[in-house]
Design goal:
There is one protein chain. A hairpin with a 5-residue loop joins strand 1 and strand 2. The chain is mostly helical. It is built from eleven helices and two strands. The N and C termini lie far apart (about 50 Å). A two-stranded antiparallel ribbon has the order 1-2. The protein is globular. Helices cover about 55% and strands about 0% of the residues. The protein folds into three domains: about 35 residues, no CATH class; about 35 residues, no CATH class; about 120 residues, Up-down Bundle (AhpD-like), CATH 1.20.1290.10.
Length: about 230
């Protein structure tokens, strides 16, 4: 450079590292979120997951949720890297099926994840529960449609999905939206719906904020999406 001495290798190293990371982020931005890169140029998780062998209590938690010996979801192993985060997260589970049918529960979860653009958690639930919940391929695709399409849903399901949309858009329910729920669900069930929607919005924030990669064999938006996308 005219009028200035060339930079030494030591002086240039920080700039070279920055350029490599910036180029990597640009190169993969169409397919991946921008990850932190190690010195070898390999992408790393935003927060490192807990690796096995796991502490006995954590392994027991994973076995309870996944089945004995089944590797945990990356969401679980990442949260388990923090004792407090894992303890609070597992205490908030609403998957016991006490108040809503499996189909109702999964419609709420799928719609919340679709509206937040959380492909990770949406894909996990479609993979794990859609068949058992009796959701057809068209109905799964319908959870991604925005505005909500007609023709797939029973009256109670329209009320349920409309409530999820209202909570996503305005963080509240109008009197009309609440009364539509009231027509089909009792007080305990309505509280369950509100808590379920809120919990999975939190899960979506975690999965999206950490840019978690899709689980192996999980469903993807591209498999089902057509027309209007729900992530608004």
């Amino acid at each position: 450079m005219i009028g200035r001495r060339p930079l030494s290798i030591d002086e240039a190293q920080p700039w070279l590292s920055f350029i490599v990371i910036a180029l990597a982020c640009y190169r993969f931005s169409s397919d991946y979120s921008c990850y932190i890169f190690d010195s070898g140029g390999y992408a790393m998780a935003r927060i490192k997951a807990l690796n096995g062998p796991y502490p006995a209590d954590v392994r027991a938690d994973f076995d309870k949720r996944m089945g004995v010996g089944v590797p945990p979801l990356v969401l679980f192993s990442t949260l388990a890297s923090s004792d407090r985060a894992w303890r609070k997260f597992k205490g908030g589970s609403l998957l016991d099926g006490a108040l809503l049918t499996l189909r109702q529960r999964e419609l709420v979860i799928d719609r919340v994840c679709a509206r937040t653009g959380c492909e990770y958690e949406w894909g996990v639930h479609v993979m794990a529960f859609a068949q058992a919940a009796g959701l057809s391929k068209e109905e799964i695709a319908g959870t991604l449609e925005y505005p909500l399409g007609s023709g797939h849903w029973k009256e109670e399901e329209v009320a349920l999905l409309t409530a999820v949309d209202a909570l996503h858009d305005r963080a509240t329910l109008s009197d009309e939206e609440f009364l539509a729920l009231r027509k089909h669900f009792d007080d305990d069930q309505i509280l369950e719906i509100l808590m379920l929607a809120g919990f999975y919005r939190t899960v979506s924030y975690i999965a999206n904020g950490l840019a978690l990669p899709l689980e192996k064999n999980a469903a993807s938006f591209s498999e089902y999406r057509k027309g209007g996308a729900a992530g608004h």
